[in-house]
Design goal:
elongated, 6 helices, 16-stranded antiparallel beta sheet, mainly beta, disordered C terminus, 16 strands, 58% strand
Length: 327
Amino acid sequence: GQEASSIEFTGEQIDISQTREVCLPLLSGVETPHILFDILRSGTAPKITVGFKSKEIRHLFNAENLFINGCAEAATVKIPHIPVIVDNASGCAEMKDGMLSIYPEGGRVGKTIVTGGTLDINLIHHHAVPFSGRFPLKVDLSEVPQTLISILPRTVLAREMSKISGLTGRADAVLELNQTQAHKEIDVKVTAKNIEAIGNYQRLPLPVRIDGGDFLLDKSKIVLNNLSGALGSSRISNFNADFDTRGSVPMNIKNMAATIILEQVPPLVKLFPGAREKLAPLKDLSGIMDINNFGVEGPMFSPNLWQIRMTGQMNKGAVIFSDNTQG
């Protein structure tokens, strides 16, 4: 039988950016190293083995015959197809049968810390480069709107993220990315918990604070579970809702409890169609309203189609109309 052909290099303390500069001109006709070095841009490999192995020498440099084993430190890793770069990354990688698997042990994307994960990239599918990644993160929320806008441009989510300002806070999250075909939108899934956030959202007239609950973004679906926090000085708890960012953006706020500071109600009234006219004679609101259960269902951006339900009671307060009658 025919002997397999192979070529193998082993190196220690390899400078990745220098290797890139040397290898790419030598392998100018081979696409795989270009994709590889676009992903792995700089850093040091304490020990790495790279080679090609094939049964036929004429196919030796085909992508599926490249194998790699090694680890890297202080590396810069570019996630394929999206404008996300992981800096100061450490971890190991292996490649066989055209599949590059990267196992980060740490790194940073801006102020967000990557604590582990996997990134699998299929280098055989030329021009498409299907990939999947899963990364647990300690998230700095100040950078999240811009990151999601860059990953999901021209989407409803990107538009709404652009309406968030002054966001600060942190969360524990897992980011999952999948692309199976060329020119197809990347599937993005984000799960987050232990959320602590303060910020402003243009559609709400008061600052928002979140201090607990879970968040899920899965493709076009957003689910909020058991969120707690505040809108202005009014306390909110047990907020459960889901949204679909496609079509008319159906929204279902299943339930929410709140302690509403009535002085803050007037700016909130404009969120609800018809309420402003009904409350026009109001001259003075004071006190507290306890809302036991509040729900809204309908297209998010068509308030006139919302179905609203609410139960609650006034808790020490006064409602005075312009003719000085009390409600």
